[in-house]
């Protein structure tokens, strides 16, 4: 071996040993941390599974109550079960937030590891080239002059090749570490976005709990826990609701029909997605459940949309990408029994969709929403005989969103109104 190759190779090996020892120690620390994080995530997942069993049990009891006659006792019991279910939903979200934070922590460790690996490989390469510069160039000419025989020349060239291969190997390691760094960074950014969404969801769920508790308190106060008083209140709500619908019918009949059917999607095209994860229809469009035989017929009588079973706090999702064109809350006007809290989304295919009786609205007017995006939570606001989601589909050309200045019971209430022809059967597009 020539003195050049021997010196360079020795320096390289010492530097490599020192730096790799540091890498090994750091890798062991990272492995322990990652293992601990995985154990915590596994525990959270088990907690989530247990909570989801409790939630399913509460939901089953609520569904049973829904089949019973509408009474004060069943309504109170349903509200109490709903609050327990919502509390478990919050715990599930909190566990998911904890998991997301642990994932971010793990990804942060990986980023540090990749960063240190890049630093170590750079040091090896820089140290090696610095040594070469300090001791002179290794060239075939120098090897030939410093060698006593052909065999020594061949041996020196082999050692030089080993040195070069080691340098190339660490250059490749550097590239892989960089790719790992970029991948971990991308995953971390995605995890942070998920964390923001989960925190927003948690705040919304807490708002649902507050509104549900307030509804129970108000119900107990208004009825004085008397069944007869409860039935009187429900009858009065129904009367006021009928009065408002008569006013609305008169307004609808006065609106000019400017709906061009050619600008609407074909029925049966399935352009809309279901607004809930679990679908049970409790009331159809039109006068009867058989109205689907004449899917687009609405003459001012019957139901203007489709009702889905949805307990308070059920996530409601946008049926199609669009822009939020209106938001309102008819409960702000005493004696106005209508949609309660509602959201309308305008789509670019001539349709607009309505989501009513919500407990929480998670979007604002002008917001862009995508298909399947969470936009609110179902509730029991407005006039209802129980929690559900009212889902309506309109021809955008005919929809007017504005205050009802001529209404007696809902004066200045903001709701969407349209001529008869603009009310479309949701099942024609789902």
What's the topology here?
Layout (H helix, E strand, L loop, with lengths): L2 H64 L5 H64 L4 H7 L3 H74 L3 H28 L26 E3 L22 E4 L5 E3 L4 E8 L11 E6 L4 E11 L6 E2 L4 E5 L9 E8 L4 E4 L10 E4 L5 E2 L6
Antiparallel strand pairs: 1-2, 2-9, 3-8, 4-5, 4-7, 5-6, 6-8, 6-9, 9-12, 10-11
What is the gist of this entry?
With 430 residues, this protein is α+β, with helices and mostly antiparallel strands. The chain contains five helices and twelve strands.
pLDDT averaged residue by residue: 79
Parts with pLDDT < 50 across at least 5 consecutive residues: 1-14, 288-294, 296-300
Q: CATH topology of the largest domain, which one?
A: Glutathione S-transferase Yfyf (Class Pi), Chain A, domain 2
Distance between the termini: 80 Å
CATH-derived architecture of the largest domain:
Up-down Bundle
Structurally, the number of domains stands at 2
Radius of gyration: 34 Å
DSSP helical segment count:
5
Order of helices and strands: HHHHHEEEEEEEEEEEE
Large-scale geometry: elongated
By secondary-structure content and strand pairing, the structural class works out as: alpha+beta
The CATH class of the largest domain: Mainly Alpha
Strand portion, in percent? Answer: 5-15%
Count all strands and give the number.
12
The major beta sheet can be summarized as: 10 strands, antiparallel
Helix share, percent: 55-70%
Protein traits:
single chain, 430 residues, alpha+beta, Glutathione S-transferase Yfyf (Class Pi), Chain A, domain 2, Glucose Permease (Domain IIA), 2 domains, ten-stranded antiparallel β-sheet, two-stranded antiparallel ribbon, elongated, disordered N terminus
């Amino acid at each position: 071996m020539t003195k050049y190759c021997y010196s360079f190779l020795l320096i390289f090996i010492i530097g490599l040993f020192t730096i790799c020892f540091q890498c090994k120690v750091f890798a062991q620390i990272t492995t322990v941390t990652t293992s601990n994080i995985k154990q915590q995530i596994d525990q959270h997942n088990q907690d989530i599974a247990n909570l989801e069993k409790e939630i399913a049990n509460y939901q089953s009891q609520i569904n049973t109550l829904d089949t019973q006659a509408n009474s004060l006792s069943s309504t109170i019991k349903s509200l109490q079960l709903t609050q327990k279910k919502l509390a478990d939903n919050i715990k599930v979200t909190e566990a998911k937030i904890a998991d997301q934070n642990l994932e971010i922590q793990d990804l942060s460790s990986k980023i540090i590891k990749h960063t240190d690996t890049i630093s170590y490989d750079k040091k090896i390469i820089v140290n090696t080239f610095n040594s070469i510069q300090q001791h002179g160039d290794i060239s075939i000419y120098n090897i030939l002059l410093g060698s006593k025989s052909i065999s020594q020349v061949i041996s020196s060239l082999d050692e030089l090749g080993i040195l070069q291969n080691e340098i190339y190997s660490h250059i490749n390691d550097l590239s892989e570490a960089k790719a790992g760094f970029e991948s971990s960074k991308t995953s971390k950014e995605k995890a942070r976005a998920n964390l923001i969404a989960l925190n927003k969801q948690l705040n919304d769920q807490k708002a649902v709990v507050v509104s549900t508790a307030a509804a129970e308190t108000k119900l107990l106060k208004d009825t004085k826990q008397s069944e007869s008083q409860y039935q009187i209140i429900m009858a009065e709500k129904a009367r006021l609701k009928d009065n408002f619908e008569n006013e609305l019918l008169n307004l609808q009949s006065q609106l000019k029909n400017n709906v061009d059917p050619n600008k609407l999607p074909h029925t049966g095209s399935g352009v809309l997605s279901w607004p809930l994860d679990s679908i049970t229809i409790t009331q159809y469009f039109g006068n009867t459940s058989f109205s689907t035989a004449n899917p687009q017929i609405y003459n001012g009588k019957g139901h203007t949309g489709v009702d889905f079973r949805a307990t308070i706090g059920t996530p409601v999702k946008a049926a199609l990408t669009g822009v939020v064109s209106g938001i309102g809350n008819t409960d702000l006007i005493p004696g106005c029994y209508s949609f309660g809290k509602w959201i309308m989304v305008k789509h670019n295919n001539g349709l607009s969709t309505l989501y009513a009786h919500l407990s929480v609205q998670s979007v604002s007017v002008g917001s862009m929403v995508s298909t399947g995006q969470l936009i609110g939570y179902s509730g029991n606001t407005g006039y209802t005989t129980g929690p559900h989601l009212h889902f309506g589909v309109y021809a955008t050309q005919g929809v007017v969103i504005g205050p009802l200045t001529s209404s007696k019971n809902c004066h200045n209430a903001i709701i969407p109104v349209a001529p008869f022809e603009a009310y479309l059967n949701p099942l024609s597009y789902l």
